[in-house]
Amino acid sequence: RSAAAIADWSGPGRTADGHEVAVLANVADGTSARTATGYPVEGVGLFRTELAFLDRTDAPTVEEQTTLYSEVIDAFPGQKVVIRTLDAGSDKPLKFVTQLNEANPALGVRGNRIALDHPEIRATQLDAIAAAAAKSTAEPWVMAPMIASAAEAAEFAGEVRSRGLVAGVMIEVPAAAILAPAILAEVDFVSIGTNDLTQYTMAADRMSAELATLTDPWQPAVLALIATVARAGRDLDKPVGVCGEAAADPLLACVLIGLGVTSLSAAPAAAAAVGARLGLVSTEQCRVAAEAALATADPAAARAAAAAALAG
Ligand code: PEP
Ligand code: MG
């Protein structure tokens, strides 16, 4: 894993035995999407749409949003683009929709839950995504953040499919991971948000430096939930991505593939190191490493077990 091998890695993502793993970028707007094209990524696995609207006091119009979404879609012609609906609230409050003075914003009306009292905001966004899709030959995938139940997934998928779009949800609430088979039955794909999945599984604020051991995605409980989701994806033959920063850790990326995850999306600067590492290991080694990590009691032991399995 020399620096040169990483610098030279140009994709596409695949293990040493040729198992394909799309290595994708997390982006925030047209500018970051165009920047991402300078890295060896095969598309966008997470477009965090709320980040473009953090300063807005009024809701963006369909036209404004269509322009924004087209910019990102057009940066990756013919490639995958996964657009997430507004993940407003908690660490990303939006002035035009987020409730003030919630006692526990991380457990409040955030993510897809904003559609409870603002259905028009989500409807407008889906209209804009559909309009951007209609203007291109691309078929963007659309996913909702903070889904906690199969009923929520079904309701969202209905809204998305009625506009002719491909529907998925994020798995970042433990309830959704536990019931992944029921959720996957309602949608076309899922993407695991390991930042929030870890926060909610470990009951530890993702922003807290003091709790860094608890908010480590190598926590075996988190790996076990990811395994549950990946198994459900394999059973139903539907894609299961990871779009949290766990996908930026080359060693953990190998474990995620070993657990059965089908694509990885993270900050584009991480793509080469992840892709180069995957190219050195077989799917079977990844599977063994995943099993070894799952059998440990803490993040440090999980890392050591995976590293040992992949070195052999
Ligand atoms: C996540 O929670 O892992 C995720 C990808 O979403 P965000 O970091 O935007 O909450
Ligand atoms: Mg999240």
UniProtKB/TrEMBL annotation:
**Sequence ranges assigned to domain PEP-utilising enzyme C-terminal in this UniProt record:** 13-274
Q: Write the record's keywords in alphabetical order, separated by commas.
A: Kinase, Magnesium, Metal-binding, Pyruvate, Transferase
As cofactor, the record names: Mg(2+)
Q: Does the keyword Transferase apply?
A: yes
Biological process GO terms, please? phosphoenolpyruvate-dependent sugar phosphotransferase system
The record's GO molecular-function terms, alphabetically, read: kinase activity; metal ion binding
Q: Record keywords: Flavoprotein included? A: no
Family listed: Belongs to the PEP-utilizing enzyme family.
Its name, as the record gives it, is Phosphoenolpyruvate-protein phosphotransferase
Q: What organism, scientifically named, is this protein from?
A: Gordonia insulae
First-to-last residue of the parent protein present: 171 to 482 of 482
